[in-house]
From TrEMBL:
It comes from the Bacteria. NCBIfam families: Pr6Pr. This is Integral membrane protein. The keyword Magnesium does not apply. The chain crosses the membrane at residues 49-73, 85-107, 119-140, 147-168, 201-223. The keyword Oxidoreductase does not apply. InterPro entries: Pr6Pr-like. Keywords: Membrane, Transmembrane, Transmembrane helix. It comes from Microbacterium esteraromaticum.
């Protein structure tokens, strides 16, 4: 496993990059063909694309998995455990991707999108395949380091920043798709669509925050359990 796992990480990284690029190309193609001023505003379209938690998480995961593969083939060749910085970043992207898979398949899979607005295989890669690979990476990857519980604070930092950024930016942007004077990456964050308005949005944010903390705690706990199992052998 020590020999071939880095290749699996690299393959997952390249697949993630390919899926992101494929969806970005389609998104830009739709924008270029738009007949409205707001729909064809490429700077807004590009920033919106990279404002999705799914895209940012997959992009981070692709980078970290590639770095982890390179580490395994170079300085990590003779190491018994990965360095702490790599362990923490892997824990972060694993938490985000596992949560992405859960939230998408529970809340978003059944939502109908405009015909031709997504690349089907890319959608499945970003929301199913990469999350499942990161779950397997947490469970089975060799040379994983035991994490301390303070790592949870690092894991939680990015989602908090993203949520604040999203809610602050939303009312400063004209939606390229509809021309509305606001844009939210996900319908459950949109107080104009969510029952209860901002209170309903707050409920979703709290629920997802709990899910992220729970998944992150599970990732940290499993790293500690694996380390204890190794020590007892």
């Amino acid at each position: 496993m020590t020999t071939w796992w880095p290749w699996g990480r690299l393959a997952a990284s390249l697949l993630g990059f390919a899926a992101i690029i494929a969806q970005l190309i389609l998104t830009l193609t739709i924008a270029i063909g738009s007949t409205t001023a707001w729909g064809g505003h490429l700077p807004t379209v590009v920033v919106n694309f990279f404002s999705f938690f799914t895209v940012l998480s997959n992009l981070a995961a692709a980078v970290v998995l590639a770095v982890a593969a390179v580490w395994a083939w170079t300085t990590g060749r003779d190491a018994t455990r990965e360095p702490r910085w790599l362990a923490v970043t892997l824990a972060c992207v694993a938490t985000y991707m596992i949560t992405t898979g859960i939230v998408y398949n529970l809340l978003l899979r059944g939502i109908e999108l405009p015909q031709g607005s997504t690349v089907p295989w890319s959608n499945e890669v970003l929301h199913v395949i990469i999350p499942l690979f990161l779950l397997a990476d947490v469970l089975f990857a060799p040379k994983r380091r035991m994490l301390g519980w303070p790592a949870l604070a690092t894991i939680a930092a990015f989602p908090i920043v993203w949520a604040v950024y999203t809610l602050v930016r939303a009312n400063l942007i004209t939606s390229p798709g509809t021309g509305d004077a606001y844009w939210y990456p996900y319908p459950f964050l949109n107080p104009h669509l969510t029952p209860g308005g901002y209170l309903g949005v707050a409920g979703y944010i709290v629920g997802i925050a709990v899910a992220i903390i729970a998944v992150g705690a599970g990732v940290v706990w499993w790293s500690r359990r694996r380390a204890q199992a190794r020590a007892s052998r």
